[in-house]
Amino acid sequence: MKNQKKPSPPEQMLVRNNWTDSSERMTIITPLTMFYKIRDEKNGKLLHAAFYPGSMSSAYMPNNAVSHQHDHFELMYVLEGELTNKIERISYTYKKGDACLLNRNTRHMDIPGPRCSVVFINFHAEYILDLMDRDVLFDLSPRLTSPDGIIHDFLLSNLQGEERFARNYLEFSSTLHTLSSPSENPAEVLIDRMQQSLIDNRPGYSYLLRGLLLRLIYTLEDKNKFHCNFMQLDSSNEDFLFARISNYMEETHGRISRSQLSHALHYNAEYLNQIVKRRTGQSLLKLAGSYRLDWAKQLLTSTDKSVTEIVEELGFSGTSHFYDFFRKETGMSPLEYRERNQ
């Protein structure tokens, strides 16, 4: 939250006017809300802040860590630090740059850790689906953005058919490219602009807010910026971690070390290695090699790159190393494979 107005006194908190809690089921009266929880580094207390058109309210309050459901969809995005999201009976760790989109049936509770800052963007499904369907420049113009991304499909499936009774969610994590970029995370830039547009309450703010929300959705759907996994209620913490390991393997084509994975996921490397072994029967090193092999095959058959260029792209120490690796895995040399499959 940047450059916001001075917080209102605790007695002027408006959260209760926009939220009601009935039988541990939360509801929002307005189509969209923005709510923050920020752990104060100095005193360790948890600041709750809510934003409304033209104003905000805030107060230090205990974390209302009670398992609950919504009558709406909730997008949780971790801005700083770490947060534990307990979904049903399983706890998942979300770090800076991670997000989670929960449907209306999934029971959960959030537990912010030290130095944690998290934003909750809550919206009625009909509100966002209407925005996505109307994302055109003029009524007669061709559609500028196609409403067929994973978030659109998730929202739509949870409103129709048997899926409306399901308990599932989408989880997002920043790609290594996004994490290593010197520029600000694009999702966080959009979230900050949404918050500013809401509190400024200037003419046209509602249209600007809708546009920013759409851009946030399409940013989260951008595979170059975020990984996304569809998670069922019975997904375990191992499912959660294995999905993320697979995301990073695919992003880097296997060019990622145990230590890099450990740093990205905030878990011990050997623990991650054991998860991979239980799921695939392979070690992390062997799994990474299979991703490198698949990418090497694709480069050999779908491009005109030389073997030397492929060796450099895949990070092998030399051509002979690559030849030995490729022949061991396929029974033929890279050039033989290209001739047979190109």
From TrEMBL:
Domain HTH araC/xylS-type: from-to ranges: 243-340
- Residues in a coiled coil are none
Q: Gene3D superfamilies from the xrefs?
A: Homeodomain-like (1.10.10.60), Jelly Rolls (2.60.120.10)
Which UniProt keywords are given for this protein, alphabetically ordered? DNA-binding, Transcription, Transcription regulation
> At the top level of its lineage, which domain of life is listed?
Bacteria
Which InterPro entries does the protein's record reference? AraC-bd, Homeodomain-like_sf, HTH-like, HTH_AraC, RmlC-like_jellyroll, Tscrpt_reg_AraC-type_HTH
User: Which molecular-function annotation in GO is an example for this chain?
Assistant: sequence-specific DNA binding
This chain belongs to the protein called: Melibiose operon regulatory protein
Its source organism is Eisenbergiella tayi
Tell me the classification of the organism that encodes this protein. Bacteria, Bacillati, Bacillota, Clostridia, Lachnospirales
Q: Which gene encodes it?
A: melR_2
